[in-house]
Amino acid sequence: MKEYFKSDEFLIIEEGFEPSYNRVSESVMSLGNGHMGIRGNFEEKYSGDSLSGSYYAGIYYPDKTKVGWWKNGYPEWFAKVLNGINYIGIDVTIKGLELDIAKCDVVDFRRILNMKQGYMERSFVAIDKNNNKTKIVSKRFLSMADSQIATIKYTVIPLNYEGEIILQPYLNGKVVNEDSNYDEYFWEEVDKKADDQVCYLNMETKKLGFRVACTMKYEIYNKTKKIEAQQTKSVCQEGYVANVIKIPVKAGDEITLNKYISAVTNRDYSNEQLEDVSIKEVTKAYDKGYEALLEAHISKWDEKWEENDITIKGDVKAQQGIRFNIFQLNQTYTGDDPRLNIGPKGFTGEKYGGSTYWDTEAYCLPFYLSTAPSKIARNLLIYRYNHLEKAKENARKLGFKGALYPMVTMNGEECHNEWEITFEEIHRNGAIAYAIYNYENYTGDKKYLADYGVEVLVEISRFWADRVNFNKEKDKYMILGVTGPNEYENNVNNNWYTNTIASWTMEYTIKSLDYIKEDHPTIYDKLLTKLELKDHEVDKWKDIISKMYYPYIEDKKVFCQQDGYMDKEQILVKDLPEGNLPINKNWSWDRILRSCFIKQADVLQGIYLFNERYDLDTIKRNFDFYEPRTVHESSLSPCIYSIIASQLGYEKKAYELYLRTARLDIDNYNSDSDDGLHITSMAGTWMSVVYGFGGLRVKDDELCFSPFLPKSWTGYSFRIMFRDSLLSIKVDDTIVIELISGADVMINIFNNKYILTKTNKVEIDNN
Amino acid sequence: MKEYFKSDEFLIIEEGFEPSYNRVSESVMSLGNGHMGIRGNFEEKYSGDSLSGSYYAGIYYPDKTKVGWWKNGYPEWFAKVLNGINYIGIDVTIKGLELDIAKCDVVDFRRILNMKQGYMERSFVAIDKNNNKTKIVSKRFLSMADSQIATIKYTVIPLNYEGEIILQPYLNGKVVNEDSNYDEYFWEEVDKKADDQVCYLNMETKKLGFRVACTMKYEIYNKTKKIEAQQTKSVCQEGYVANVIKIPVKAGDEITLNKYISAVTNRDYSNEQLEDVSIKEVTKAYDKGYEALLEAHISKWDEKWEENDITIKGDVKAQQGIRFNIFQLNQTYTGDDPRLNIGPKGFTGEKYGGSTYWDTEAYCLPFYLSTAPSKIARNLLIYRYNHLEKAKENARKLGFKGALYPMVTMNGEECHNEWEITFEEIHRNGAIAYAIYNYENYTGDKKYLADYGVEVLVEISRFWADRVNFNKEKDKYMILGVTGPNEYENNVNNNWYTNTIASWTMEYTIKSLDYIKEDHPTIYDKLLTKLELKDHEVDKWKDIISKMYYPYIEDKKVFCQQDGYMDKEQILVKDLPEGNLPINKNWSWDRILRSCFIKQADVLQGIYLFNERYDLDTIKRNFDFYEPRTVHESSLSPCIYSIIASQLGYEKKAYELYLRTARLDIDNYNSDSDDGLHITSMAGTWMSVVYGFGGLRVKDDELCFSPFLPKSWTGYSFRIMFRDSLLSIKVDDTIVIELISGADVMINIFNNKYILTKTNKVEIDNN
Q1: CA distance A463 to chain B (A)
Q2: Where does substrate bind (chains A, B) (predicted)?
Q3: Domains in chain B, start-ordered, CATH in brackets?
């Protein structure tokens, strides 16, 4: 099933309908606009296998946790991104027979995702059991220009018959989550109405009372001629409203239904406002009309591509792959709303509860930092700032001072349900701190530290200071009982990465406090009071920094992933017999835990983050030791190794690792894209190109590059925003860096400095 | 609520009804006869809080496992001991008003468990809202003489009214398990009938098709006069059958309903036979009559007490406590059926799934070895022998050779649902091997090794040999990624106990093979073929034995519980601030895991099992180190420490530890007896007395004692079976050992040998 979709620079094309692959296609063809998202489901009824998905940003359900044996401190619930009102549905009846692709012969089926313009288009001919042939063409988009609006143009063309067709556009709130822990139904109807002008449905979630209200309006054309009078009625059932439109047709007619939908939630309006706003919004859209809405939508996408396209020459698959990743990231998060974040599956599936993980800080933040105005990345930081009190509660619950950010969350509370993750995978706390550094370093917005950042840093440092354990005999601080980024080890002592990021957090916190004291003394005094920060606390941090224990493999001169790692049988991935990989599908959990195999970058994650601390020899030794032991069974892994390989000049290895995620979902590489797309790992793929091949770094306020051209490509280019300047970087025989817009900027290429101005591009020979 | 029950040498007495304590009382008042068991629920309707429980040995339900994130190798189901047909129910209507103790004034309430004779008796006066006063007296038992029969004598005495009472004895199959993972209903009705002569109900479990068929018959008396003609009808509803008996009464009448019940299952009969057998059995019981049935039942209990009573002088609470334990163990397992085993809660509750744990081998086996003919203990071994193929499958599932016995099971398959237990708590495998040694050593039945034992030993040794990991650098075999008996550590490396018992298993297997080769050469040859055992395998075991790694704390000269244990902050239990204990109620799981505190005997468990290997100084150093770090939050822990304390002459400590479980359930010490009783730990309490205070050991076929008298007691005595001789051991100012029955036996007291004959008791001064 690899290479199921046709290659194209800007399109994802499915030709011919393959029911067994439908869930994957639905995932790949997902649309979103930051406010909401839908999987590539069919409008008309489909009784075959399908994962129906209509998601609304920030609307979730606290499902009762499912654990075998409850233990103190376990989260009570696991937050689920909710499948909500399905607004795409249009049932079709052809001369009394309901159209169901699963029950027809389907000819000339094409489903296309147009990434350039952000829409999905579908066409096919259905031949039903009465031998009536009907061509269907549908095109839909969720407006990037007006995020509360979705529009569908649905055309029915009778090819060989005359008679009556019925179109039944509907809103259906009776939807379920496949991943409901106890097969519960999460929604209740609040209100509805249905007449020929407008269908309105308002649903509320149980427990938290989130409301989603959708309204739809429609118009009917035969070719270009609007049909005013149809024989219609409306349907109003529990959680369901619809219009029923009967149309007499003859062969050659082209009956088009334009369905306009508004979707508003009580995250943005009061419950009382919902009906009014929803109807007003859809009416406005209806009045603008389909073409005008589409035009505004495309124009927004043009802006996005202008800001963050990557082009690749000489490899159309690679081009398609990278654009797919950029496209999905832009669909998932637009950065307008600091209450939102980036779920691992975005709006494309239910898996992982759709909540916020450390993926955001470690993988997504760099993408948004480099491809959007800095306020977008800042909103990702503010999201965590706003959760600080919850993070403090979370630490308290486990018996600690300071703040422990959750492994998974929707509202700041922990909602994962495995002790080895929630209690032990605490390195995530460091990622929150690192994101502040990353933002400050990239944007130069140091003031953020004083306004928000340092409060988070101090509380995280307090957590680390309470979580370490002083070993008198060894005169060292240790961190016992953790799970590192490599989740194929649980409950280990002294994970090198965790110890490293913990100590680094305290260092950076002290440095940040010093800066605020110096540059913003008034704010500093207020902070001391607010945080009740005392000198002895900072002294304790200094003591921990100086006496932190870092496991080390003496004879190999590499950092040791954790205590006891070398007691394991040391085998290399290449020596595993065929059929063993991926080990998470072929081995018991027990065997995985006891093996030396590494799921994802762990020591290397640290070397990636704190790159400047280590000389090339050290980096090389660690890469050479750990890479052959890493199975990369997280989509977040290869990008980190790829970036380091690029740094080491391992160009072939860097490209090979890049390939492992570049087309992960398009090619359903891990056979799991049916569940939804790997949204957060897409940012990692982007990083492999820009940070890896392009060698982007920001050091001491200077933008640095050290690009190389992978052998399989004839050239590539990317665009990045740096402190509100937009740059284009093009790499083929020459390296050309241009300033597209914004102020002049000092850049550094292969350790040479250049000043980039609008009239002065930098061009370097690349042979 | 401590000391809720009155003290008595042979009775457990509840005086006055305390609804909030009802679940505990129901647990404590449970009855069982090896074949079935019931909690101390009321016969009449009770709308207050209650855990209704009617259990049938070996009838279970494979409930779908509840885990947060599925991982390879997880068991698909968690076996639940099933709540089945409730046969004790008798609804009572007084002049049109249903009797419900929760809605009456209740006076003179007494609920008594008579341990001497094995019945529960209850009496009270209920004053309903019409001010009708009714005295109720009920007495019931599950026959030890005929395990398929239960009998209830239920007397209703109108004190201040005349009119009609209705008695409605019933069988109710519509029962649920409170611990159902997905609130499922586990039973379906097969068949029923109800007439005035007989009510019959046959229920079948979903999935596995276990059937339980119950039949009831009744008779009515007014005082001693049988009432022949009542106005009756019968009720026949889904899963429910009943007789409805209307009786005109006047004050002073004593209306007694004798309810006879048979309960048979398709574990013992074919589905076709069930109805016939069930009706035949109950008819036989009915014909014998209540008094004759009770007499036969009591006579069986007399035999039990004759065999295994422990008397304690000078401390009635201690006397009551130890008898309660012996009583419950005898109720739970009679040893007639090698398909059965001893669930942690016996027939007294649902918790822990009621399945077989290593508790059986480590704690219960010694009790049955010493208190019953050897075939009873042998049946416990045969149980595991019969599960050998499943244990091999279980090892295969995790990728290992040999056999891994499950942590929890009903039918040999693993059915626990936490990876840190199922995959890692593999020391349990050693307990299965040790039980074979224990049996052989105690009974002298070496032939068992050849007939059954060694097959189990070889397969367990094969597992260990595959599970160890050779560390070239250290030239040692290691066992990584385990959970020891101390479940407050998960996924540790080189748990001393696990490494010890693994190596010991291989040693004992080799020794057993040598014995069979020598003494049973024909069997030996057959075994080699059957097991496909090769010399190189045995050589590998020898290599592992000689190079096994045992962590050691050099400066303290004690065995180290596992790698890294000493990196933990070393605090003692006595230094914990008040309110921290028990830590499993007050600390997060995370904090528990990272602490040095030990849930239950771990290193000490090894020292207990392999006692003869260690000199007293070594034992003392280890006890002195580990005991102050042990929180004993498993009911299986204090007994082991108590036995070692006795051995070390720490008499006060031994007694103090003994007290922690002696009255665990009677005093609801851990506030969890509402869930059911701690059946398997009761055997541990028995061991504290017999192995600890009495100093019982069997060394080289010799029965050894080194008794002491705890200061709070004026004397104690116990009886034990040793190789079919019954001995009485009495300890007060003198130590008197008598042979009650069976052949002469050589004994050893304080290292002096004596020959015990029927005419020659041994008497030693104890001052």
Answers
A1: 14
A2: 358-359, 599-600
A3: 11-305 (2.70.98.40), 328-339+637-767 (2.60.420.10)
